[in-house]
Amino acid sequence: MKQFLLTCLCAVGLLSGVQAQDVIMKRSGEKLEAKVLEITPSEIKYKRFESLEGPTYIIPKNDVTLIQYANNTSETFEFDPSAQTAEPVRAELTAAPEMLSVNLVEKGQLDATNHYDGYKAAGTGTLVASLLSPLIGLVPAIACSVTPPRDRNLDSPDHQLMQKPDYKTGYVKNARKIKSRKVWKNWGIGLGVNVVLAVLLAQ
């Protein structure tokens, strides 16, 4: 019994590590879930957490008040009146025109991050099954995570762009990652609840 509980606790720890992310707090109150790549004297470079293989973004440090890192440390930033502020931009925007296909893939990934929510049914089903039994929950979790989202569930904001192969490839690829992440997160929640109950009952 103790070995089983130890294994479950390790699994919960691994799952929480996979979901770790940095949080950028802007002066406007907006919160960005991200992976911080680099901090320069005037800028912060990051990737959106939902699209780690997508474009790199740049935001002025003056627009940021605090960064909460995945390791539970934080860093605050003072406003510098001598520095100019601007909207976040993509670092790849300087690419040559022949990179259009790459930009379409990235746009598809970004749109999936902002609009895809077709994972909800799969995530809810996995959560319910996992609360009953983590072993039973593995069945829908594995099945849903390896199955690409159906076209009718993609929720693309631009059906004309969806006809372009490069855009659709980027959108579907990122939608599948989002779906898999959400499904396994819900399985982890179900596992965690069962571990806590098992510990309480064992006392």
TrEMBL record:
Signal peptide: 1-20
Keyword list, A-Z: Membrane, Signal, Transmembrane, Transmembrane helix
Organism of derivation: Pontibacter akesuensis
Top-rank lineage group of the source organism: Bacteria
Protein name: Uncharacterized protein
Transmembrane residue ranges: 183-202
